[in-house]
């Protein structure tokens, strides 16, 4: 990878010529075939990658076993930076979507290069924050969808019938239909039928039918409400997990910013020391 190609990466676009050439010497060329897995979640993280050509898919595996694509990266982008910053295992899978040419930078070389180029660390933290924000938005969309999908998969015919009856029983349609039926029943047994009334006043059969309907309607509505409460509990649990993940991500960003500020202060102190040491030499000349 040449310095001009390296500057196409937004993270390294502000590097000076000497720094860009030094970084190019540290990069190791890697060829990845289509479908090749560069690393998986849980692998040891000892290097980051810069894409010179091709495309890389970053994905994670959800609890339900489905693979979620977090990002699709192209030329000029980088990945694998989280592991070389904290030294922990990989958090996602990286797979080549097509034949790709990459530049691999080991953790040891990266940390030594970072000591003299603190702006690169700040740019990397900014990119990390943007990626975490995108991932959180993706997970939030999946949370709002998964609750309904999970509940839909477990519904039986009796559950669907209970929901339909509960929805109809709590509407104006049910009230209008009931009043119309009661009025028709009373009119038929009071005025239309004069000799053989099947339910004469005081309408004992009608009272019996109303009691049966009420006795059956109450537990059906309770079944529907219990299922809705279960759905609300699932949604609340997923919201809690999402909020916890956001809090952990924010704490991680703050910790890395603190480390960056510490490294910047140490670098400034070293530069001031070098300047003070060069003053007597310049005065002697």
Provide structural commentary.
The structure is a single chain. The chain folds into two domains: 1-114, Jelly Rolls, CATH 2.60.120.10; 117-274. 14% of the residues are buried. It has 285 residues and is an alpha+beta fold. It has helices at residues 3-6, 17-26, 81-86, 107-114, 118-154, 157-169, 172-192, 204-284, and strands at residues 28-32, 37-39, 47-53, 56-61, 67-73, 78-79, 93-96, 100-106. 63% of the residues lie in helices and 14% in strands. A four-stranded antiparallel sheet has the order 1-8-3-6. It has a four-stranded antiparallel sheet with strand order 2-7-4-5, with helices on one face. Helix 5 (118-154) runs antiparallel to helix 8 (204-284) and helix 6 crosses helix 8. The radius of gyration is 34 Å and the shape is elongated. It contains eight helices and eight strands, in the order ααββββββαββααααα.
Secondary-structure topology with pairs:
Layout: H1 3-6, H2 17-26, E1 28-32, E2 37-39, E3 47-53, E4 56-61, E5 67-73, E6 78-79, H3 81-86, E7 93-96, E8 100-106, H4 107-114, H5 118-154, H6 157-169, H7 172-192, H8 204-284
Antiparallel strand pairs: 1-8, 2-7, 3-6, 3-8, 4-5, 4-7
Count of spatially separate domains: 2
Q: Low-confidence segments, ≥5 residues, pLDDT <50?
A: none
Total helical elements = 8
State the distance separating the first and last CA atoms: 41 Å
Mean pLDDT: 76
The fraction of residues in strands falls at: 5-15%
Class of secondary structure makeup: alpha+beta
Calculate Rg over CA atoms. 34 Å
Helix content: 55-70%
* Arrangement of strands in the largest sheet: 1-8-3-6
Tell me the series of helices and strands, N- to C-terminal.
HHEEEEEEHEEHHHHH
